[in-house]
Every structure is written in C-alpha cells, then in structure tokens.
Amino acid sequence: MAPLPAAEEKNLVKNYFDGVGFERWRNIYGAGPVNRVQADIRAGHQQTINTVLNWLPADLTGLTIADVGCGTGSLTLPLAERGARVWASDIAAKMVQEAQNQARRCRSAHGQFLDQNIEFAVADLEDLRGMYDVVVCLDVLIHYPAPRAQQMLKHLAQCARQRLIFSFAPQTPFYSLLKKIGELFPGASKTTRAYLHPESLMTQTLSELGWQLHHRTQISTRFYFARLLDFTRPAGS
Ligand SMILES: C[S@@+](CC[C@H](N)C(=O)[O-])C[C@H]1O[C@@H](n2cnc3c(N)ncnc32)[C@H](O)[C@@H]1O
To answer: Please, what CATH class does the domain formed by 8-232 belong to?
Structure first.
C-alpha cells in the first residue's frame, strides 16, 4: 500500500468515523444487539478498557486525564465517574457528540451528571495542548503508519505529567498474516486502513525520551487484538 500524505490520511480517518464508521463503532461500543464478529470485538475492547481502569487508582479525584481519540466515551465515562477531570477529544465530531450525549445521561455515585467532570473537544490528538497527569490513547494508532504513530506518541508524551497509556496492533508474523487474509474479504475497502506496529519501535520512542515501561499486556480475542502499554515519566525528568 502506497503511503498517503499525512493530512490526507487523517482526513480519511475523520471522514470514516464521521460517516459509515460512526454507526458501526457506536453499535460495537454500545450494549445493543450486534453480529458475532462485532460481539467479539466488543468483548476484546471491553477488556482493554477494564485493564486500563485496573491500572489506575480507584479514586481519581484531583487527577487530570486526557482521553485522546475518545470515541463514544467508553473510557471517558468511567474515568469521570471515578472523580477525574477528563479532557475527551476526538477528530470525529459525531463520536464526540455521542460521548457527550452519554455523559449527559449518566450520573456519578454522588448524583452529579458525568459531563460536569468532562471537557469535550473535536480535535486532532496532535493539537493536544497543556499538561495532564495521565494521557490515554486507545485503539487510535492502528489508523496510522508507524512513523506517524511515533510522532503522535512523542507529542502525547510532552503533554503527560505522570503516565502515558496507549494501545496499538502489534506487528507479529501471525497478525501480519491475519491482516493479509482480512484484506482479501469484500468490505475491507469500506473500513479505514489498519497498520500493525513493531512493539520495539513504540517502546524505543518513549524510552529515548526517558520514559519507563510500567505495565504491558496483550489483549486478544478472535477478531480483536491490542498491545496495551503503560509508561511512567521518571520523577524529575
Ligand atoms: C477505534 S476508535 C477507539 C475509540 C476509543 N479510544 C475507545 O477505545 O473506545 C478510534 C477513534 O480514534 C479517533 N481518531 C482517529 N485519529 C485521530 C486523531 N488523529 N486525533 C484524534 N482522534 C482520532 C477516531 O475518530 C475514533 O473515534
């Protein structure tokens, strides 16, 4: 596949999640009926969300967290429920709108509507500004080729005070084969491009900036696979 210019690549992703991809992913991330493949992806994604929540303290009061590429708010909402101040941004306006609608309907244990703890924005993750205690970026880097994903991670690291948690699809011989097979099926052209990334490249990008790997896990179901990494910024750096 020939590489696309960066702006064109982002536009394709944005148009997909604001277009045909919106309903598809809203269904997958929702609780309504879905087909078997989508149910499998839903279960895998939920494991990713649960793992991140397990890695973070139960009480997030006083912490600021940026959930970039927040989608429909699968992680944003539980973070706000635990008391964090959340910045939830996404390149696709429809995804942000859906996350906002959900937050307006949910209340925390203290009876407060969750959207009061969340600032929503339609924004490219590379436009993130300011510093957050934790920056999280789940299932977003898969949409970009490795050099761009590296650049994105570097940017996110600049905005993270303590931790940077992110997922990507690892480049292994097995997943590379699976991806090739998937591309043979009709319908693949209706989705975005999906890129597998060598884990060494992702970890090296952050180690070179002085960050340390704190947690690492692989989440795999039949149709969902993600490597989930949690890096910490060493004190004083
Ligand atoms: C597969 S969804 C994952 C959503 C969410 N992180 C989750 O795990 O529930 C990918 C999301 O990333 C968003 N996205 C893709 N590229 C982005 C970018 N450059 N900046 C911000 N969001 C982006 C998409 O619009 C989409 O909502």
So the answer is: alpha beta
